[in-house]
Amino acid sequence: MTRTNPWLLVLLAVAGGAITWAIEAWLTSSGSGSLVPSIAFAITLVVMAAVVLAIAWPVRRYTAALRRADAARDKAKRVKDASTQDAESAAREVAKYRVDPFRATFAVALAKAASLAGSVFVGGSAAVVAWLTSRTVIGDGVVEAVIALIASALLVVAGLIAESWCSLPPENGDAATTA
Question: Domain limits of the chain?
Answer without folding.
Answer: 6-28+36-57+101-169
